[in-house]
Amino acid sequence: MKLNSLVQWFLKQRASLPWRPEDPHAKRDPYAVWISEVMLQQTQVETVKKHYIAWLKDFPTVYDLAQADEENVLLHWQGLGYYSRAKNLHKAAKILIEKYNGDFPKNRSEIEALPGIGKYTAGAILSMARHESEPILDGNLIRIFSRLHLWNFLPTSKPEQDIYWDEARTWSQGKNAYIINEALMEMGRTLCKPQNPLCPNCPLQQECKATSENCSSQYPPRKKSIQETWHGVIVIIESADGKIFSVQEEDTPFLKGQRGLPLFEFSKAHGKGFPGKAERWITPESIEEYHWCGAIKHAITKYKIECQVLYIRSKDKSKKSSHWVARANIKQAFANSLNLKALHKALED
DNA sequence: AAGTCGGGGAT
DNA sequence: ATCCCAGACTT
Fold this sequence. Notes:
With 349 residues, the protein is of the alpha+beta class. The chain folds into 2 domains: 2-214, Hypothetical protein, domain 2 (Endonuclease III, domain 1), CATH 1.10.340; 228-347, Nucleoside Triphosphate Pyrophosphohydrolase (Alpha-Beta Complex). Helices cover 40% and strands 13% of the residues. It has helices at 2-13, 30-39, 45-58, 62-67, 70-77, 84-100, 108-112, 119-129, 139-149, 158-171, 177-190, 209-212, 330-333, 337-347, and strands at residues 228-238, 244-245, 263-265, 287-300, 303-314, 324-325. A hairpin with a 2-residue loop joins strand 4 and strand 5 (303-314). The relative contact order is 0.10. The chain binds a DNA duplex (11 and 11 nucleotides) through residues 36-48, 79-85, 88, 115-121, 124, 136, 138-141, 156-158, 181-182, 185-186, 188-189, 193-196, 222-223, 225, 227, 254-256, 298-302, 336-338.
């Protein structure tokens, strides 16, 4: 039976990870499952480890998370990307306490209604924390199913999604869904990889059509990705008393709604002159001096960003507003990699 | 159904 | 360089 060989492979092979209890059959803390699963969304296991450990140390329970400042929550997310995940964790923690007495609600539909929790994460919580027979579907399972059945499509349209989720449901029907689900993910991560899959080691090789036809690496079909290059200017304004200017706006080119450095598109090769667009944040009369610090490169989703870093020193002292950030608070206030690269370029060169 | 959202690891 | 990662949400 294919389930047996998969489970046996997993129990023998099972890697030690910070969010895994020693006992593979133990019911897990739903809060810990939730945090780890959200961190793991579109993020590799190795990247998550350190963040997960630090998070659980500082926010060991849903109550600690709900009481934390959003700035502190975002600081813990620094480097993970997709920052709405952190904001949604914070929001959902408050909802869990106010509406559900600090625990997850009973029904799947209620869990999926929480901000940042979709079908995958709800299934992971229900199966791994509560040992319910609920399916999950992530990139690993999509790849495995595509290869097992030679499905030459991704779950894009609704009918295609139904096909994949129905398959996931059949795998999770038994009483050990908690271990089947995790075994499939681990198998996809370590053996059934996108490139160079290790089919000879696979516990499912007997039933896998792609293995028998020796075409695993052709499945699933690649999704088309279009990359764009984006040129801009990122602005560092320092007040006379040494604080850095920040903005928090919804219509920024990237990292919308997050506190950050002023940023604007600037496609023309700029001269040495002062770009008028920067006057949105500082009047020319207030400028003590400015200079170009060179370029930084950064990637955000499909965009390859190339930014000139513009440093401006103001004649004025900082106002008492949330715009101005002391040097000591830079990491908290500019909790994303794009801004930290620019600040490093301007202030530490 | 398609677009958007970060950053890093692996090749 | 390119792909893709234990996806969710908005348009």
